[in-house]
Amino acid sequence: MTSHRVEPLFSATEISERVVELGRSISRDYPSKEEPLLLVGVLKGATLFLADLIRAIDRPVEFDFVAVSSYGAETKSSGEVRVLKDLEAAVAGKHVIVVEDILDTGLTLRFSYLIENLRARHAASVKLCVLLNKPARRVVPIHIDYCGFIIDDVFVVGYGMDYAESYRNLPYVGVVRFAEQD
Ligand code: IMP
User: Fold this and answer.
1) pTM of the predicted model over 0.85
2) What is the spatial distance between Cα 80 and Cα 146, in angstroms, rounded to a whole number?
3) For a pocket test of ligand 1, which of 74, 75, 101, 144 has the largest count of ligand atoms closer than 8 A to its C-beta?
4) Cys-Cys crosslink for 84: which of 19, 26, 67, 75, Cβ 3.0 to 4.6 Å?
């Protein structure tokens, strides 16, 4: 691993306060408690965010996880996205919110793929919730319905997000500073 250090960006308190606000917005936007709401977390990065977010939602809510991969930024066809773990929950007739850790270039097409896939399964509606948005890096336009924080073009870790599988367990979000950036 290249020599680096991690600088705090958002503290655990800042994150939990923002997650409470997002939970309130979601509760307000789906007022009819009879309408089923399903939150779909994208593995692995969104696990901690999803766990906190569902506890901030004041109405019945179901959750599930998907794992998707793609062949990376050099491939641009949605046919390149592979589902590694599908949903167990039924989707038809439910309001679905896809929960992701971070929206960067949009080139992996996981969002567009998942949203189209859920619509094809007759979800009543499909929205996107991301903890972090890096708009400066966006190549593919993607509409975000709920966003935790907007950040600059930096590589972040913690609160579920990793650098080579490390740092997912940090309770805060930090920026990775590589030695050559010093
Ligand atoms: P996109 O298609 O470029 O938007 O890819 C988004 C995905 O790339 C995220 O869901 C993360 O898995 C990963 N990613 C992008 N930026 C970062 C980062 O700063 N830290 C950790 N993972 C990142």
Assistant:
1) yes
2) 26
3) 101
4) 67
